[in-house]
Amino acid sequence: VSPLLSDLIEALRCLPGVGPKSAQRMAFFLLQKNPQAARRLSHTVTEALDKIKQCQDCRTLTEYDRCQLCSNNKRNHQLLCIVENPMDILSLEQAACYDGLYFVLHGHLSPIDGIGPNQLGLEQLQDRLAQNTIQELVLALNATVESQTTKHYITAMVQNKAIKIASLAHGIPLGSELGYSDQNTIAHAFHTRQELAE
Amino acid sequence: VSPLLSDLIEALRCLPGVGPKSAQRMAFFLLQKNPQAARRLSHTVTEALDKIKQCQDCRTLTEYDRCQLCSNNKRNHQLLCIVENPMDILSLEQAACYDGLYFVLHGHLSPIDGIGPNQLGLEQLQDRLAQNTIQELVLALNATVESQTTKHYITAMVQNKAIKIASLAHGIPLGSELGYSDQNTIAHAFHTRQELAE
């Protein structure tokens, strides 16, 4: 292979989920089948790197100082949903179940990796809660052991404040068969079973 | 999502095998986890688009006038292997079974799509064969119905010339179970069965 083509294949391999064969396929696709798309990809990546930063209010990724959600007056500014990653906002917005604001931690507490409350913007969150506009906090963190400490930390932060705090429900995913759920999920769903109205 | 982030996700979706969810994951990865890799990707795509062209001898993709294989005097310049795509050269080189030169068609004959002998460089191939340096031609075309016409066309081109012509053998792939092979392959492998030396 030509050195430049190797470089291109190597550069594409950095993408998550792209192995050597897919990277080859992508490189030839970009060069042979769709040079316009390749040109656009290259341009957009550079532009996004140069312009996208964190929203000053919610820390999500945006090219504006305040993101479109935070500056949207039709959203309910009394509700705040805490997520670990900006991508989680996309998932929640696609679920169309929530019309409040978000706050992005960009990770979870992990002292061993040097990630403390400051890295997660929890001081900024504290200041925001002190303004008394938020009435309910919804924790939409990952349902992993690693995220538990963060959940407890934030719960402790709102104690003695007149703020409702909730976490997403855990249980059997809709549309899935019981046989495919792990035992922890089943046990949790059993213990938190919902009484049916008569 | 911010418009620029949408643009980036959209631009990544053009890659083969990348759906909406993978494109999202890739976009956040490039912006958050690995901006250096993103910068390099953007740069390499542009450089490759600007510099990579077809080798004047074999039509593979390269940034040189003559590719590294064609200009390598250690290769056997009397053998010529015909492939449909530049990627096929990678596969053959990885198999380390051949030390001759290549010729890339960039497709197969398909009059309905306006792809005739000229588009595949078959005139150039004819000129090359007329120089009498090539002694054996190996057809490594795809084993599809669509590539049959091309195979026959090239076979006809070398008739009445002192050039050996061969095609890759078809049969059961090594390491695979018979039960997973399709009936055409099995029938072909049966008819072309190899006598075992005693």
Summarize the structure in words:
2 copies of one chain form a homodimer. Chain A is α/β, with parallel strands linked by helices. Helices cover 40% and strands 13% of the residues of chain A. Chain A is built from 7 helices and 6 strands, in the order αααβββαβαβαβα. A 4-stranded parallel β-sheet of chain A has the order 4-3-5-6. The longest helix of chain A has 17 residues. The radius of gyration of chain A is 21 Å and the shape is globular.
Quick structural gist:
By secondary structure, chain A is of the alpha/beta class. Chain A has helices spanning 3-13, 20-33, 35-51, 86-95, 122-130, 148-157, 183-191, and strands spanning 53-54, 61-62, 76-83, 100-104, 136-140, 164-167.
Supply the key terms:
homodimer; 198 residues; alpha/beta; 4-stranded parallel sheet; two-stranded antiparallel ribbon; 7 helices
Which protein chains make the most extensive interface, counting residues with beta carbons within 8 Å of the other chain's beta carbons? A-B, 52 and 51 residues
- Assembly type: homodimer
Order of helices and strands of chain A: HHHEEEHEHEHEH
Largest sheet strand order of chain A: 4-3-5-6
Average pLDDT of chain A, rounded to a whole number, is 93
- Number of separate helices of chain A: 7
How much of the sequence lies in strands of chain A comes to 5-15%
The biggest sheet of chain A, with number of strands, parallel, antiparallel or mixed sense and barrel status, is: 4 strands, parallel
Distance between the termini of chain A: 70 Å
The helix/strand class of chain A is alpha/beta
Residue share in helix of chain A: 40-55%
Shape call of chain A: globular
Low-confidence regions of chain A: none
Radius of gyration of chain A: 21 Å
Give me the count of strands of chain A: 6
